Amino acid sequence: MLKKLIVILGPTAVGKSELAIKLAKKFNGEIVSADSRQIYKGMDIGTGKIAPDTPNSLTHAFTHQEVPHYCIDVVSPVKIFTVIQYTKLALAAIRKIFKKRKIPILCGGTGFYIKAIIDGLTIPKVEPDWKLRAKLEPKPAEELFNKLKKLDPNRAKTIENQNKRRLVRALEIIIKTKKPIPLVSKKPFPYPFLILGIKLSEQETEKRIEKRVKKMVNLGLEKEVANLVATHGWVPAFQTIGYQEWKEYFTPLNSKHLTGFSGKIDKDKVKDLIALHTRQLVKRQMAWFKHDKRIKWIKKQPEAAKLVRNFLKPC
RNA sequence: GCCGCGGUAGCUCAGAAGUAGAGCACUUCUCUGAAAAAGAAGGGGUGGCCGGAGCGUUACCGGCCCGCGGCA
User: Which residues lie closer than 8 Å to A220 by C-beta, 6 or more apart?
Assistant: First the structure.
């Protein structure tokens, strides 16, 4: 039995999911999502999530158009989800699909997650220590940077001295292990994989973004956000495009919850912001993918099918 | 028509008599337990137009044009 992995990546709003489903049906595959936002339960409209035929929280999988999907709807938005957790879930799903003698299709736009799977990043096993982070966070970046320079000079060289998020993580590792961060090492995915990237022209992307935003709002994004924030408050997971933009729109009841409309910005402004941020995201995603020479860029689905057929051919 | 306020970067606006800044946008880049996150670097302005005073002005004075508010 041949074990091969198909990867479909590309920026937001280019139609990755559709392609993945088509290929899954055609080549007997199952889909593993690689999307850092669709991980969260309840964040449906704003993340462009597909609708499940039948949810199944036990296996962390659901089916859509009868194709099983994994790594969607796995945690509550109050939780912070990390690459490591993702890697565990995704690899488990891939193993399971192999066992069923099917083809796993890794599909999403989160480059970091995809990289973690196919290049097998070996990330230092130091769990986030939120207490420690809360202690370090308020300090000025200079102080954190100088501290890191003393404790782990090599790591300090690789982090921009204003990037507190990374400085804090680096400090967390050195403080808890007392050892410098090991050099970058990888354990690549052990079976052959084909990476397909979907890329559209700028105008095409622009059109799709506008359509996407309009559709989301029509589907009731405002209500989704209002409900989520009413039950969870403005948790970090809502620092997501499609969600964060509503913060100004609503009047906060207290620091966490909202009650009504602020009148500061209107719905059109919110839509504009979502579209703008989506455009920026697309650029960032493309910047991430750009340098990976293994990606086979395609525009139309037939091209993909052809490439996949070739790839799956036993040699 | 009169009175007032304003016209400075793509947008919103600071500022000072000695040839200009900020935020956002834009371009490029980084990425090893928050990644739709968190950061870095960079480009860009005949300062509404015309004239005058002044060593010199986008900044002062006058006229004109345009926008906003008020009064008739």
Answer: A45
Q: How far is CA A286 from CA A4, A200, A205, A240, in A?
A: 25, 11, 12, 18
Nucleotide nearest to A115 (CA to C1'): B32
- What is the ipTM, given to two decimal places? 0.89
Q: Which nucleotide is nearest to A236 (CA to C1')?
A: B34
pLDDT digits (tens, 9 = 90+) for A35-63: 999 999 999 999 999 888 865 555 556 88
CA–C1' A270–B16 (A): 37
Q: Strand B: which bases are under 7 Å from protein Cβ?
A: 25-40
> What counts of helices (H) and strands (E) characterise chain A?
11, 9
- Which nucleotide does the CA of A130 lie closest to, via C1'? B34
pLDDT per residue as tens digits for the range A71-116: 999 999 999 999 999 999 999 999 999 999 999 999 999 999 999 9
Q: CA at A262, C1' at B6: how many angstroms apart?
A: 29
* Interatomic separation, CA of residue A128 and C1' of nucleotide B4, rounded (Å): 61
CATH 2.20.25 fits A203-283, yes or no: no
| Residue with tokens 């354990």, as numbered in its chain | A187
Instruction: Work out whether strand A103-108 and strand A29-33 pair parallel, antiparallel, or are unpaired.
Output: parallel
CATH number given to A5-122+187-200+293-312? 3.40.50.300
* Nearest nucleotide (C1') to alpha carbon of A237: B34
- A113-147 pLDDT, tens per residue? 999 999 999 898 999 999 999 999 999 999 999 99
Q: Where are the domains of chain A?
A: 5-122+187-200+293-312, 130-177, 203-283
How far does the CA of A276 sit from the C1' of B26, in Å? 12
Query: Does this model's pTM top 0.90?
Result: yes
CA–CA separation, A226 and A40 (whole Å):
16
